[in-house]
Design a protein that fits this description.
About 55% of the residues lie in helices and about 5% in strands. With about 300 residues, it is mainly α. Bound molecules: fe (ii) ion (2 copies).
Length: about 300
């Protein structure tokens, strides 16, 4: 039996002792750890547990389950655990079906080009990499809440919307001071660069368009300057989720905003977004926040 930090738990670890809080048994000894259970332990602010496996053993995910077939998926799993600050993913992912959908659907369909591009983004700009994984979780859950069909192309578009950043100098991406006009213009190019990269790899139009148009705004303040009304609903969804994710994740130059503050800031900029969709997004986040188990 070993003591293991909850953040080090891996799928397949087995609890060696009951977890009891306020006389309530949360998990019994012998429980096999899943991603959902790790997030639950985090939400209960439990830092350490006793497990029957070695703390240095690495679970072989692929032998136990087919959910995580490659290194990007492994990253995704680690990402969900390590970034569950303020119960972020406990709020967004409610039950096993949610986890199954996100992990199976997003990753079993992932092709080699997507994996290679995400790997490139990961090594170039870790913040953008985390952000695109986060955008995937939020947008897919919201689309399901709206009863929309989520296709593999939708997932690719969400994951690759910022891929053009691999052509932006890293010194600009990580700069924690005010950007010069030239630097800002350079960052803005990530939309066109993304479209160029995805087109040259023959991704479908919707995937290329999600990269090219996710910074368009209905009030004309975004880029490129086009009429936002004509854009596909998936791009309008991405516009909102993109900003919400960026606001509510830590950045090198500021701490993350809470979900409440993120929604408030979005609301102050509502003219930039499809207002019906924005209201539905606010409803979706609030609905999920109300449902998260409170202690
Ligand atoms: Fe972007
Ligand atoms: Fe983004």
């Amino acid at each position: 039996m070993y003591t293991k930090p909850v953040n080090w738990l891996t799928i397949g670890d087995i609890l060696a002792e009951d977890i009891i809080i306020d006389h309530e048994v949360i998990f019994t000894a012998g429980t096999v750890i899943t991603l959902k259970k790790i997030l639950k332990l985090q939400s209960l602010e439990i830092a350490y547990v006793k497990v029957s496996s070695s703390p240095f053993a690495t679970a072989n995910y692929q032998k136990q389950t087919n959910i995580f077939p490659d290194s990007i998926a492994q990253d995704f799993y680690n990402f969900l655990i390590k970034n569950n600050k303020n119960q972020r993913y406990s709020i967004l992912l409610k039950d096993n079906e949610d986890f199954q959908f996100i992990t199976n659907y997003a990753f079993l369909n992932m092709n080699e080009s997507v994996v290679n591009l995400l790997s490139a983004l990961r090594s170039w700009d870790i913040y953008s990499y985390k952000h695109v994984l986060d955008v995937l979780v939020i947008a897919v859950q919201w689309m399901r809440y709206l009863d929309m069909t989520v296709s593999a192309d939708d997932c690719y578009g969400l994951l690759l919307h910022d891929i053009g950043k691999i052509k932006v100098p890293r010194s600009i991406l990580i700069k924690n001071q005010r950007l010069t006009t030239e630097e800002y213009e350079c960052i803005k190019m990530h939309t066109e660069n993304g479209e160029y990269i995805l087109k040259s790899l023959s991704f479908p139009n919707i995937v290329c368009d999600m990269a090219k148009f996710h910074h368009v705004r209905f009030d004309g303040t975004g880029y490129p300057k086009i009429n936002a009304d004509v854009l596909d609903i998936r791009i309008k969804i991405l516009m909102i989720v993109d900003v919400f994710s960026a606001l509510t994740l830590d950045r090198p130059y500021r701490k993350a905003y809470s979900f409440e503050d993120g929604l408030y800031i979005l609301k102050t900029e509502e003219d930039g977004f499809d207002q019906d969709l924005l209201q539905q997004f606010i409803n979706f986040i609030k609905y999920n926040m109300e449902k998260v188990p409170q202690r």
